[in-house]
Amino acid sequence: xxxxxxxxxxxxxxxxxxxxxxxxxxxxxxxxxxxGVTQGGPADLHGxxxxxxxxxxxxxxxxxxxxxxGLRLVAExxxxxxxxxxxxxxxxxxxxxxxxxxxxxxxxxxxxxxxxVNGLRAYLAVAGGFRAxxxxxxxxxxxxxxLGGFDTRGGKLAEGDRLAVGEGSGASVxxxxxxxxxxxxxxxxxxxxxxxGAQVGEFTGQSLYRAFNAAxxxxxxxxxxxxxLTGPRLLCRLASMISEGxxxxxxxxxxxxxxxxxxxxxxxIGGYPRLGALTPLAASRLAQCLPSQEVHLVAASREHALxxxxxxxxxxxxx
Length: 319
Description:
The protein is of the alpha+beta class. The chain contains four helices and 20 strands. A seven-stranded mixed beta barrel has the order 12-19-16-17-14-13-20.
């Protein structure tokens, strides 16, 4: 892979082991769904935002989303980084790396991610940000669509890649205060706030009761496109629908009655009835769940969801 750089960038890391899935993600690709292009961006907005915040970066700065672990990087210069989101057993020179805080890395040191300990996706931000050429206004990597990433073509990291970072990324960053509630124990059953959707009234009363009172399990059919939940069968009286636009967190219910929560790399339209939509923070929480993990759907009002999101944005400097 050829890393695209310019006079404002330098090489920050060399990849010595790629792992199963490490992708470059900024805030996402917006304004292009009319072209059939999905948004991309961090599956866990919360973890991504805090990694950037702790590294001293502005909102939207590209960071690495590391899924399952297995990634190993060697620093090509002195850097300040922050890792937030999942605990993937990250180490620096073989010693445990402090999570959810800025960490200084020296040239030649090795940063490695092992396997999931708590959660599924970790976010590695570097002070100054990773750098790549944007495609349709974003560097977010969507493998299925072949867009974004360090190579502009949606490529995953590979051994030998050299990753560009912004100038000034070696500057020290003072540790920033972080609310105790910001760090999440992803091993606990997740309570996912859901805004009821346009077709919610078409589900039977018993199905609605089950939807919000039964425990659901995360199926192993889960990726950045969506997560299938297994549990009681939900019945909808709608026999057919005209396809309509699909937003982040939309919970579709296909004929088998098992909900599918759609995430960042979802399709842009869909024709299954929707129970509703997870809030962005609920979608983020679901993105950290491992297969077979228990989750619960919780009906939420628009006012509550908006207040929660505004509080989150303020906590990461966007208020």
